[in-house]
Specification:
By secondary structure, the chain is α/β, with parallel strands linked by helices. The protein has helices spanning about 40-45, 50-70, 85-95, 100-110, 130-145, 155-165, 215-225, 230-245, 270-285, 290-295, 300-325, 340-355, 370-385; strands spanning about 1-5, 10-20, 25-35, 120-125, 150-155, 165-170, 170-175, 180-185, 190-200, 200-210, 330-335, 360. The structure holds 5'-O-[(R)-(carboxyoxy)(hydroxy)phosphoryl]adenosine and zinc ion (ZN).
């Protein structure tokens, strides 16, 4: 069983090809995995622009697929001239009517190479930026149309869960078997959710953010501090420096711990962002976000980065602890881009040690968006006996409960 996967939900274009390794447990070998980041493109605008992300995915995806096929030794060029059947070419053109450039690139690919030995395609169908998602979905549907390879739509956040469950020995990855019930903390640029997992593929949302996602809050606060997009890693670096230097946060720079005592598993991070702005204005004596960048001194930045990260971590840890108690959880899975944050990781490790709960954190190479996690999730669906889909709709707000 060989699976090709595509991820285009946000600002990384990624393709992977994996091969199932025989045995009872779900194991696989990675034949190829490539990630093209659009960060440099979006940096200049301070965030991700959906239309620009879509254009960039459409511009690069077909070439990336060809490169992965080549690396996986699955690309066989045709020696004779070959043209797509007229009726199929027409259908392809219809399918890609909004992606003319991708249509042209795919025709060159389909006419230039033989059908590769791929058994299934796994593609991120949501949640994420709808225009960006459509590029991946339409590319997968094109391969289904021309090569007749079955397609599995994958939920991006389920992908992050599976990424955290991967263990690697030599060149072989394995999806770990977890002790259930399990609780997952999903923290990314678009999501902050606590999910109950009674078994893999069965998800129930226990709580989520009422406004900003935690990664979004990191990015917005970073911007106020004059840092580049994506700001999460930058804040984390600065907060670590502050910790090393034993910086004490003055009382009037202290931030709230939003929803800490709400008794439910819901979050709210937008107030925290406003609280940071208030502190910046007071200390920097500035009136706008733009001028705040100029007035902030390094000491103030260090104190804010530290206090902000501490506030977010306190809330996340408290809610996860509550979820573990209320659900009698035996394991905790942490997934999504923010799971790269080492302060959050450390505190969740401490919590799981105290509560005697197994903890699954993603390898730092797989904490961000990538197609490997989508391929692995596709394999999980197939092993679970699930059927491929003929019609796939990219859904920007797809709930994990319907994954
Ligand atoms: O999962 P992801 O790569 O993309 C989405 O699906 O959204 O998550 C990206 C988010 C960004 O907001 C980024 O700032 C944040 O993850 N992030 C971090 C760290 N590394 C990435 N936030 C805090 N600390 C980090 N070390
Ligand atoms: Zn993500």
């Amino acid at each position: 069983m060989i699976i090709l996967s595509i991820e285009t939900s946000c600002d990384e274009t990624s393709v992977a090809i994996i091969k199932r390794v025989r045995g009872k447990n779900i194991k696989f070998e990675v034949l190829s995995h490539k990630i093209l980041s659009q960060i440099d493109l979006h940096k200049q605008y301070g965030g991700v622009f959906p239309a620009m992300a879509k254009r960039e995915h459409a511009r690069t995806l077909t070439q990336l697929i060809a490169e992965c096929l080549k690396e996986a030794d699955l690309l066989v060029e045709r020696t004779n001239e070959h043209h797509l059947e007229m009726s199929k070419r027409k259908k392809l053109e219809e399918l890609l009517s909004h992606e003319q450039e991708m249509f042209k690139a795919l025709v060159v690919l389909f006419e230039g190479i033989q059908k590769p030995k791929i058994d299934a395609i796994a593609v991120t169908a949501g949640p994420g930026l709808a225009p960006a998602l459509w590029v991946g979905v339409n590319s997968a549907l094109s391969m289904n149309l021309i090569w007749d390879i079955p397609v599995y739509p994958i939920h991006h956040m389920e992908g992050h869960i599976v990424a955290s469950l991967l263990s690697k020995k030599e060149n072989i990855f394995e999806i770990s078997e977890i002790k259930t019930p399990s609780v997952a903390l999903l923290i990314s640029g678009g999501h902050t959710e606590i999910v109950r997992i009674s078994k893999l593929r069965k998800y129930k949302i226990l709580g989520k953010t009422k406004d900003d996602a935690v990664g979004e809050a990191f990015d917005k606060v970073a911007r106020m501090l004059g840092m580049e997009y994506p700001g999460g890693p930058e804040i984390s670096k600065l907060a670590n420096t502050s910790r090393k230097e034993n910086i004490i946060v003055p009382d009037d720079l202290k931030l709230p711990r939003p929803m800490l005592h709400s008794k439910d598993l819901y979050f709210s991070f937008s107030g925290l962002k406003t609280a940071v702005m208030t502190r910046i204005k007071k200390y920097g004596d500035v009136s706008s976000e733009a001028s705040a960048k100029l007035e902030l001194n390094e000491e103030l930045k260090k104190a804010i980065a530290l206090e902000f990260e501490n506030s977010v971590t306190d809330v996340l840890v408290a809610k996860v602890k509550q979820a573990i108690y209320e659900n009698g959880a035996n394991s905790l899975i942490v997934g999504g881009g923010v799971s790269a944050n080492n302060h959050i990781r450390f505190n969740l490790q401490e919590l799981c040690r105290e509560e005697n709960v197994d903890l699954y954190l993603p390898d730092l190479k797989l904490s961000g968006d990538n197609a490997l996690m989508i391929a692995a999730t596709g394999l999980l669906h197939i092993e679970n006996g699930e059927k491929s889909k003929k019609k796939i709709i990219a859904n920007g707000s797809w709930s994990i409960e319907e994954a």
